[in-house]
Design brief:
- The complex is a heterodimer.
- Chain A is mostly helical.
- Helices cover about 75% and strands about 0% of the residues of chain A.
- Chain A is built from eleven helices and no strands.
- Chain A has helices spanning about 10-15, 20-40, 45-65, 80-120, 125-160, 170-190, 205-215, 225-230, 235-260, 265-295, 310-340.
- Chain B is mainly alpha-helical.
- Chain B is about 60% helix and about 5% strand.
- Chain B is built from five helices and two strands; from the N terminus they run ααααββα.
- Chain B has a two-stranded antiparallel sheet.
- In chain B, α2 (about 10-20) packs across α3 (about 30-40) and α2 (about 10-20) crosses α4 (about 45-55).
- The chains are: A mainly alpha, B mainly alpha.
- The interface of A and B includes residues 23, 34, 37, 69 and 72 of A.
Chain lengths: ~350, ~110
């Protein structure tokens, strides 16, 4: 049976939807009562709607560990445990941002390395050299930090799975394993088509660059040129279409696994320290990309050089900047949460 | 003062809520009406619950058993201490401001300003 149009419960339910589920579980009923009373006094108020929308968005950011404070009770826990959950949420957000950064960064870095291999120094400037070296130095460090961050989580998850205390962990773990397998197998297969030469004076780790090139093939301006895309091998186009979904499935399932795993305070502290280090390395990587895009945006002698930065690179850099900004905010919130948990 | 210092722009609503709860437990709507009565400020629902959640997370207020769907909140001992410290600091600022106005602006006819 549908509610009448003038039923005040309708706008209240609509306003409540701005808030995340965890917040509604804790405050939803009493907040709805307050809204009903307010609606009786002021049936229409744009200021109230805007205030609730702002509060809801902030509550969502807080629930993602990007700002605010841990919620008490409401299905969650009290005091220090709630603070730990908030830190975990921050680290999950940071992990997702790092994954986006790595994906788009890999596309940009592999492009730089390919151009560097093929052009030698012709058409390139010293700024491009600096950009290539900075990104080449930063990328392996980021990957090492990612592996270090994953190890204690994987160990905790494996322990839970073995001890049969893995409620809600099996399915996301299986999806994560399957998605990671697709990315690795696909990446290893398509890296054979890498147009780089395997190492510029030994500076570029050719195998890594080839693998990252293959896994980031989907970040391409060829999507805007269907005619060119049609000349690609069908398997490569299929990989370009499938790989982003595999990457997204891996990241989302990893986020679910971490959220459902009770990580110890020591692990949270370790992960937060790695997160801060990762943010610093991302700044170096982004600085390298900025140098390249800013100085090589034009053509060389009227002809586009191999280093020419196109729209896809500017869009990629904007994505990297946004991912870094959100990651840094998450790292700040995680550090503050840890201080709160220890106090 | 220290407990409310971290509230930033929410220190205003937090002070109003704590001052209201100093008079006894109240639920959201009663808080709104009380604050409107003594401060002339109507706390919007989103702002009120943002401040309530912050105060509760810091242990400055605590939720009581819900009555129907309305849940009253009461001031805790740390909340009372924080409110006293905050109001003392505000009073010092108020006293200094009023004293300086009295000395340097005593001749101004405020009705004509």
């Amino acid at each position: 049976m549908s509610r009448p149009a003038d039923d005040p419960a309708v706008p209240v339910a609509r306003l409540l939807r701005w808030y995340p589920r965890t917040w509604r579980d804790r405050y939803g009923a009493e907040f709805a009562e307050l809204l009903l009373s307010d609606l009786e006094e002021r049936p229409r108020s744009a200021a109230r709607t805007l205030d609730v929308m702002r509060g809801g968005v902030l509550a969502r950011f807080s629930s993602a560990g990007l700002c605010g404070f841990p919620l008490r009770s409401g299905g969650a826990t009290q005091g220090a445990d709630a603070a730990d959950s908030h830190v975990t949420a921050s680290l999950i957000s940071l992990g997702c941002c790092a994954a986006v950064f790595l994906s788009f960064g890999a596309a940009m870095w592999s492009q730089l390395t390919i151009a560097w291999q093929w052009s030698g120094t012709a058409g390139a400037t010293s700024v491009t050299d600096v950009a290539t070296i900075a990104t080449t130095a930063a990328m392996p460090v980021l990957l090492v930090l990612a592996i270090l961050a994953a190890l204690p989580v994987l160990f905790t998850v494996a322990k839970s799975l073995v001890s049969r205390h893995a409620k809600g962990l099996r399915l996301p773990s299986a999806v994560l394993a399957a998605a990671a397998t697709i990315v690795v197998v696909g990446g290893r297969h398509f890296e054979n088509g890498w147009p780089g030469t395997g190492g510029h004076g030994g500076l570029i780790p050719g195998g890594l660059a080839a693998f990252e090139w293959a896994t980031s093939l989907s970040v391409s301006s060829y999507w805007g040129h269907p005619g060119v895309l049609a000349s690609f091998p069908a398997a490569e186009v299929a990989w370009m279409a499938v790989s982003p979904f595999a990457l997204a499935a891996a990241v989302i399932s990893a986020a679910i696994v971490v959220r459902r795993t009770e990580l110890s305070r020591r692990i949270l502290l370790f992960e937060t320290r790695l997160a801060v280090a990762a943010c610093a390395v991302m700044v170096v990587f982004l600085a390298g990309c900025c140098c390249w895009v800013a100085t090589e945006g034009q053509t060389v002698f009227g002809q586009p050089s191999l280093f020419h930065a196109g729209f896809i690179d500017v869009a990629g850099m904007a994505t990297l900047t946004l991912a870094l900004a959100v990651a840094q905010q998450a790292a700040r919130t995680a550090r503050r949460g840890l201080r709160l948990a220890r106090s | 003062m220290a407990a409310l210092a971290g509230f930033g722009r929410y220190a205003g609503p937090a002070t109003l809520i704590l001052s209201s709860l100093a008079d006894g437990p109240k639920h959201g709507y009663a808080l709104t009406k009380d604050v409107e009565g003594f401060a002339g400020i109507r706390l919007a629902p989103g702002t009120l619950y943002e401040a309530l959640a912050r105060l509760e997370s810091q242990g400055l207020i605590e939720a009581l058993e819900a009555e129907d769907r309305r849940r009253p909140y009461r001031l805790t001992a740390p909340g009372a201490t924080a409110l006293r410290a905050h109001l003392d600091a505000q009073r010092r600022v108020t006293d200094v401001g009023l004293r300086r106005l009295a000395v340097n602006w005593a001749t101004v006819n405020w009705n004509n300003v």
